[in-house]
């Protein structure tokens, strides 16, 4: 059950203790875990450490594992292995993990001397292309793919028109780094908030272009329209107009289309899952087949 990095060494032992308890009590390893699952009607649930889990359905996750790993078919597979002089074993586990490390109030209580918010700047160019500046470097996390997909889905534009800028402190907003499963949960949320600000200002520009009230402007699938009419302008047209303020009411509307947002979540995220590993061992050679 050893996972992929340092903290997992401790998890190896506490998971092993659960299996030892199951054997001593004569309880199925999956059943002993189910007996300790938080039930859906118990959320939000405050853990012994004081963290509040917002949602989860751990029985459903375990049910899916039992199905796809064919847990019920294991005895027959083990008998087939024994008939060949082989050994076969099955390990199962389930987990909840605190991800999206960031809540400044929580890490402050734990002794951190910094806040763990993050930031993003979204700049819409006159051509309609975008530059998204994020406060942390990507070294395999896939920021260049995930962040454009988020922004593109919100603006109804092609993700290929979005450039992610990172790694240069002269160009990017202040950020707190890529670790603790936080890139999309924290920095991605900052990207969303900055994009929401872009949409809000773009609606004002569209209202000016369409000679309508800002409250009447709707935005959907890359187009700004006046509710109840066929009057509309595209996102690209608004992007260009943002930089050609020939008749702007400058006391109400500034030129340009660029916004920055900081995001400091109130809590971690709590993904959960279950996994299984089945192995066959040749006792003569020690060869293990997973």
Describe the structure.
This protein has 290 residues and is α+β, with helices and mostly antiparallel strands. It folds into 2 domains: 8-97 and 270-289, Aldehyde oxidase/xanthine dehydrogenase, molybdopterin binding domain (Aldehyde Oxidoreductase, domain 4, 2-Layer Sandwich); 118-263, 2-Layer Sandwich (Aldehyde Oxidoreductase, domain 4). Helices cover 34% and strands 20% of the residues. The chain has helices spanning 8-25, 29-34, 58-68, 74-83, 104-109, 143-155, 183-210, 235-241; strands spanning 45-46, 52-53, 87-96, 118-124, 130-134, 162-165, 217-220, 223-226, 232-234, 258-263, 272-281, 288-289. The strands form 4 sheets. The protein has a 4-stranded mixed sheet. Strands 3-11-12 form a 3-stranded antiparallel sheet. A 3-stranded antiparallel sheet has the order 7-8-9. β7 (217-220) and β8 form a beta hairpin. α6 runs parallel beside α7 (183-210). The chain is elongated.
- Global mean pLDDT: 92
Low-confidence stretches: none
The total domain count is: 2
Query: What is the CATH homologous superfamily assignment of the largest domain?
Result: Aldehyde oxidase/xanthine dehydrogenase, molybdopterin binding domain
Spatial strand order of the main sheet: 6-5-4-10
Distance between the termini: 13 Å
């Amino acid at each position: 059950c050893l996972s992929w990095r340092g903290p997992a060494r401790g998890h190896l032992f506490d998971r092993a203790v659960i299996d030892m308890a199951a054997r001593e009590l004569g309880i199925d390893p999956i059943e002993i875990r189910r007996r300790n699952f938080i039930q859906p009607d118990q959320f939000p649930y405050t853990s012994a450490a004081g963290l509040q889990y917002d949602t989860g359905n751990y029985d459903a996750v375990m049910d899916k594992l039992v199905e796809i790993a064919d847990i019920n078919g294991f005895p027959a597979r083990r008998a087939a292995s024994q008939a060949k002089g082989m050994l076969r074993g099955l390990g199962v586990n389930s987990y909840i993990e605190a991800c999206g490390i960031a809540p400044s109030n929580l890490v402050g209580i734990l002794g951190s001397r910094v806040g763990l918010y993050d930031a993003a700047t979204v700049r819409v160019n006159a051509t309609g292309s975008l530059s998204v500046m994020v406060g942390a470097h990507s070294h395999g996390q896939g920021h260049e793919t995930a962040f454009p997909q988020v922004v593109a889905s919100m603006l109804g534009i092609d993700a290929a028109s979005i450039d992610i800028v990172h790694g240069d402190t002269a160009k990017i907003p202040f950020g707190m780094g890529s670790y603790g499963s936080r890139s999309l949960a924290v920095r991605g949320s900052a990207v969303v908030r900055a994009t929401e600000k872009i949409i809000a200002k773009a609606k004002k520009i569209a209202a000016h272009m369409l000679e309508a009230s800002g409250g009447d402007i709707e935005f959907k699938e890359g187009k700004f329209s006046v509710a109840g009419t066929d009057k509309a302008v595209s996102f690209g047209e608004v992007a260009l107009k943002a930089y050609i303020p020939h008749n702007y009411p400058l006391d109400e509307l500034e030129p340009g289309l660029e916004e920055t947002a900081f995001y400091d979540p109130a809590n971690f995220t709590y993904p959960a899952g279950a996994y299984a590993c089945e192995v066959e061992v040749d006792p003569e050679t020690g060869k293990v087949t997973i």
